[in-house]
Amino acid sequence: MSKQLKDIRYSVLDLATVIEGHTAADTFGWSMELAQQAEALGYNRYWFAEHHNMIGVASSAPQILIGYIAGGTKTIRVGSGGMMLPNHAPLVVAEQFGTLATLYPDRIDLGLGRAPGTDQPTAYAIRGENMNAPNHFPQDVQKLQRFFSADNAEAKIRANPGEGLDVPIWILGSSTDSAHLAAALGLPYAFASHFAPTYFKEAIKIYRNNFKPSAQLAEPYVMACVNVVAADTDAEATYLFTSLQQFFTSVVTGKRTLLQPPVDNIDDVWSIYEASAVSDMLSYAFIGGPEKLQRKLSAFVDETGVDEIMVTSHIYDHQAKMRSYKIFAEVIDA
Fold first, then answer.
1. Distance of CA 202 to the CA centre of its chain
2. Which residues of the chain have pLDDT under 50?
3. Cα separation of 241 and 285, whole Å?
4. Predicted local distance difference test score (pLDDT) of residue 201
5. Which residues does the UniProt record annotate as the domain Luciferase-like (predicted)?
6. Which pLDDT score is estimated for 128?
């Protein structure tokens, strides 16, 4: 299972973070610039995550952002990390991603999650009476597979465009539940260790031990999403990291804000309780200069055997964020 950094792929998770003093329009322009740099640096894929009712996160419509980024790039895969399937009818998702895959052949990924991507009142506003329905996530994933299958040509309900297209489906997880489903269906598995690290190791063990080969995948494939703040020095990275710490503090307290500028002393911002809660959520945060990153990431890959690392970076200054992704790529490729 032991792997080295040079053995793995690396990708980007973009939450379309809105920073203090700027707008979502600024964010989208920066996302395009980051995606184009990521493509040039050899990143494998660029994903957006579906979130709602968060003023600091502008990725409420990932399917639209996917088309925007795919249209401004040439080779990098673009997709969802993920579409929160209980918020959508499978047929509509198949049509949307079938359209994307028709426009951008062999470049579109469909990552699926079972969470609402928001708070309960907002989830009710999205789903209405479907909030009270039983969990149909496994069945809905299989419906999507049928809609994309060429074998669905004789069915009464068909996805056009979508039918017969190769749109890779991924299962996303933040606990152990989806690990069983990804294994049973023989699909690649992406874990949200960037905010829910508790069950990461247990979940990927379940997935690998129970994996059944499928037409899409012969062997288990694990992608871990982690937080990375890289800079030329450890001290600079630690300073930039305080923006992410503030962001997670706002999640813990429920006082959502735009991404704040870094601070000299994070202890002036949070309480002891908040510091403990945020530190737990950020167990898989890799912060530092190139040497520290190389050491920490090598240990992580060796221990977990992941096939791919997906990086998300909440950094206030856009140029510092671009620099962070460049350093990360250089560390992996060294």
1. 19
2. none
3. 9
4. 96
5. 21-254
6. 73
- What's the CA gap between 5 and 298, in Å, rounded? 6
Residues near 40 by beta carbon (within 8 Å), at least 6 away in sequence: none
For 50, the token pair is 């579906």
Which residue has 């050899």 as its token pair? 42
User: Any bridge partners for residue 84, and if so which?
Assistant: 113
Distance of CA 147 to the CA centre of its chain: 24
**Distance between CA atoms of residues 223 and 190, nearest Å:** 5
Q: Scanning the structure block, which residue is given the tokens 């990375």?
A: 228
Residues 134, 307: Cα–Cα separation, whole Å:
33
pLDDT of residue 115: 76
Assigned token pair, 118: 């928001």
* Tokens 């694990």, residue located: 222
C-alpha to C-alpha distance for 311 and 103, rounded to whole angstroms: 26
Tokens of 4: 């080295």
Domain boundaries, the chain: 5-333
Count of C-beta atoms within a 10 Å radius of residue 14? 26
Q: Which residues pair with 79 in a beta bridge?
A: 47, 109
Could you give the dihedral angle defined by the CA atoms of residues 84, 86, 89 and 92, in that order, rounded to the nearest 10 degrees?
Answer: 0
Q: How far apart are CA 108 and CA 28, in angstroms?
A: 19
What is d(CA 287, CA 324) in angstroms, rounded to the nearest whole number?
10
Phi, psi for residue 288 in degrees, rounded to 5: 155, -175
Question: Which helix (H) or strand (E) segment is 46 a member of?
Answer: strand 45-48
Strand partners, 287: 229
Q: What pTM does this model have?
A: 0.95
Mean pLDDT of the chain: 94
The residue whose two tokens read 């990927």 is 204
5-333: which CATH architecture? Alpha-Beta Barrel (3.20)
CA–centroid distance for 201 within its chain: 18
Q: Is the CB of residue 176 less than 8 Å from the CB of residue 199?
A: yes
Quickly tell me which residue has 């996530």 as its tokens: 137
**Type of residue at 227:** N
